[in-house]
Design goal:
313 residues; alpha+beta; Jelly Rolls; Arc Repressor Mutant, subunit A; 2 domains; 5-stranded antiparallel sheet; 11 helices; 16% strand; Homeodomain-like_sf
Length: 313
């Protein structure tokens, strides 16, 4: 298992780097040949990879990576979770993950087909400074909406850009790396146009549940290790804890406290699955007062002890 900047004995989810990530999302012995899959070494472009769903593992994550991800579904359906936000991919759905975000994918139906693109922050440096990507493309930011449903012509245009990228990868034409960057940028621009037209951006002037609950979910995904009380998030959102609890319950069917607990469970599961760090160390990293408290919390949420989950993961 490869990780990036993980200190020995520190209970953090491994932050996987792009050049050592394949074993987590591709089946062993996969012979498909789209994009980077089984692409000869001399044709690979550093900081960028693209695949079709053929050969994808039946489930991926929960995990964290230090690169951006675009998932594109053309047929079938897939369940995707980004932080606390859960989405059902169907034909024409795209979702976006940014570095450091907890991500998982499962329930991939047999008729599912699509593509996914992975790229480092500096891959588009010639076109966009690495730190400006979330500003240029808001679906890559905590404050944005990380999934979008495209119309038939729009998804066809996105798929066409993916096809052009694949064609560039398979030949040694002059300027191929720049062409791949340009096609990726144009793909993102195509999506942004639809994103803006659909008015998917969240406006902070809207205090109704349409804004409040998604913003709460994003804040929990961002701050759950340091802020564990509903009152903490109510203060950030400028509402009372009772109003926040009531609104979250009305929209999701679960309390705001349950959402915070769910995010902690996701983090704990990923640490248990992807590291061999002691349970006691994990409890401290997740800011529990003692290991017994962490064990009790995990069992209440999952029905099994942390050790049992690790053995079965």
């Amino acid at each position: 298992m490869a990780t990036n900047n993980i200190s020995p004995g520190k209970a953090e989810i491994p932050l996987y780097v792009l050049n050592d990530f394949r074993h987590l999302h591709r089946r062993e012995g996969d012979t498909s040949d789209f994009g980077y899959n089984n692409l000869e070494a001399g044709k690979r472009i550093p900081g960028f990879e693209v695949y079709s769903s053929e050969g994808l593992r039946p489930a991926v994550g929960p995990l964290k990576s230090d690169f951006y991800r675009i998932s594109i579904t053309l047929s079938g359906s897939v369940d995707v979770q980004l932080g606390l936000e859960k989405f059902k991919h169907r034909p024409g759905t795209l979702s976006f993950t940014f570095p450091g975000q907890v991500f998982s994918k499962d329930n991939i139906t047999a008729d599912t087909f699509g593509y996914y693109i992975l790229f480092n922050a500096d891959f588009l440096e010639e076109l966009i400074p690495a730190g400006k990507i979330p500003l240029e493309f808001p679906f890559f930011d905590y404050s944005g909406v990380p999934f979008i449903q495209l119309q038939e012509l729009e998804i066809a245009a996105v798929a066409d850009f993916v096809g052009k990228i694949d064609a560039e990868l398979r030949q040694h034409k002059q300027g191929r790396e720049k062409a791949v960057r340009m096609y990726l940028y144009l793909l993102l621009l195509e999506v942004k146009r639809s994103y803006v037209a659909q008015e998917l951006h969240i406006t902070t002037t809207d205090t109704r549940s349409t804004y409040l609950v998604p913003r709460f979910m994003k804040l929990v995904s961002q701050h759950f290790l340091t802020k564990k009380r509903v009152a903490d998030y109510a203060a950030l959102l400028g509402v009372t804890p009772n109003h926040l609890n009531r609104t979250v319950k009305e929209v999701t069917g679960h309390t705001a406290s349950a959402a915070i607990a769910d995010m902690l469970v996701q983090e704990a599961k990923a640490v248990l699955r992807h590291t061999d760090v002691a349970i006691s160390e994990i409890s401290w990293q997740l800011n529990f007062s003692d290991p017994a408290g962490f064990n009790r919390f995990f069992r209440e949420q999952t029905g099994q002890t942390p050790l049992a989950y690790r053995k079965n993961a």
